Amino acid sequence: MTKNKTPQVTKANRKRYEIPNLRKAFEILEMLSEERGGITFPEMLEKIECNKTSLFRILMTLENMGYLRKNAETDAFSVSRKILSLAYPALCDANIIEESLDVVRNLRDEIGETTMLGVLLDNECVMVEQEYGLSSFNFIGKLGMKSPLHASAPGKALLSALPKPDLEKLLPKINFEKCAKNTVENVQSLKEQIEKFSKLNYAYDASEAVDGVNCVASPIFDAHSYPVAVIWITGPAHRILESEFDALGKKVLASAAKISERLGYIA
After folding, report:
1. What DSSP line would sit under 81-143, residue for residue?
2. Is the pLDDT of residue 110 over 50?
3. Which residue ranges does the record assign to the IclR-ED domain (predicted)?
4. Burial of 20 (0-12, 13-18, 19+ CB in 10 A)
5. ∠ CA 173-95-107 to the nearest 5 degrees?
6. Are 92 and 229 in contact (CB under 8 A)?
7. For residue 40, which phi and psi values (nearest 5 degrees)?
8. Which pLDDT tens digit goes with each residue over 3-50?
């Protein structure tokens, strides 16, 4: 191997260069990210192929580094907020968040409902920033919260803005899980919605991701006319009325356009 040069890796020899315990560490992080209540050491032994000593060492290393935390009462491990320091740069350019903060806040002030900013990750929309609504009761998510593409306004806003080749690659990967009473259940129905929303430049959902919760969203574009983020409002269905979706959509669209312009997008 030439000095200071990356080894030639092919599909045939890729496994040869893997570090097994490093792979296990990321498998653990992925597993814990899906468990809100955390997982105990014995439960993890049953869920993941790893010997007891190695698993314990991996958990201790991640906990000592601050990426895991352990509940003193239940002994369950869960992912800490420190993981966001790694995730943010990968999810989106920090510039997107910086250029969006005041717009997200102003939209929240104008409408009064919780306003969120998200990005596309695999087959889900991941929330990276939010401003809490002004009412005493609001829908609030945790940073890193995932919204299904087929069932949420932000997800459908992103899908409707994707170039056709990217959309066609992504659609077969979507799992049409029933999230709420009005969730779209097949790809044909989703395509019909995408076609409609692509003309409007905003999207909405009425109790499709969460029963009793409505959302209105609009995609954000970069200088290359690619949808790099999405902004949306979310709140109880009795406050975000279906009859007001179009009026609210235009307001969310105006906010998205302002951020897009800052990112160099030319309509």
Report:
1. GGGHHHHHHHHS-HHHHHHHHHHHHHHHHHH-SEEEEEEEETTEEEEEEEE--SSSS-----T
2. yes
3. 82-265
4. exposed
5. 80
6. yes
7. -80, 165
8. 566 667 676 677 777 888 898 999 998 888 877 778 999 999 998 888
